[in-house]
Amino acid sequence: MSEGMSEIVQAASSTGAQPSRTAGAGTVARVLVVDSDPAALAAIEDVLRHDGYFTASAFDAAGALDAADRLGPFELLITELHTTPVNGVDLAAALRAREPELQVLYVTTCGDALFAQDIPHSADDDVLEKPFSEDELMDAVAALLYWHRPARSQR
Q: Is 155 inside a domain boundary?
């Protein structure tokens, strides 16, 4: 293993975490990704890790809460909007109870359904409709982490 890299961390059977390329080389944003589709989950994580983010993943809310307990805090949650039994909005609320500065990128395949959902619209939230490109994902992540907020305080 190359110097500066951490070992792979497994949060639980339904979650996984990977160190970023820059782990140990400075502060990187920590992103929790939740998607019930394994291919989508892997693709999102790959793009984020390639860009230097620390990622942890889960297929559902229970796995996300476990990952937050064991690997948090996170700066950004990327979650499917329509999940069961807990939807993305409720998951975000539960995680924000622990980490009030958490920002959320909701991912959906149903753009029209967005208007029926009670999604909090603020500088801390954004919505990305599938399918999306790597550039669209990274633009949305950067907008939430770096453009919409003042610099985070040191933890």
A: no
- Range of 123's domain? 9-147
Residue 19 lies in a domain: yes
| CA gap 22, 109 in Å, rounded | 32
Identify whether 153 is part of a domain.
no
In the predicted model, what is the mean pLDDT of residues 139-151?
78
CB 5 within 8 A of CB 23: yes
Asked whether 148 and 103 are in contact (CB, 8 A), the reply is yes
DSSP state of 112: G
Q: What is the pLDDT of residues 30-55, one digit of tens each?
A: 999 999 999 999 999 999 999 999 99
Token pair for 1: 């293993």
Q: How many domains does the chain have?
A: 1
Phi-psi region of 19 (alpha: psi -120 to 50; beta: other; left: phi over 0): beta
pTM flag (> 0.90)? no
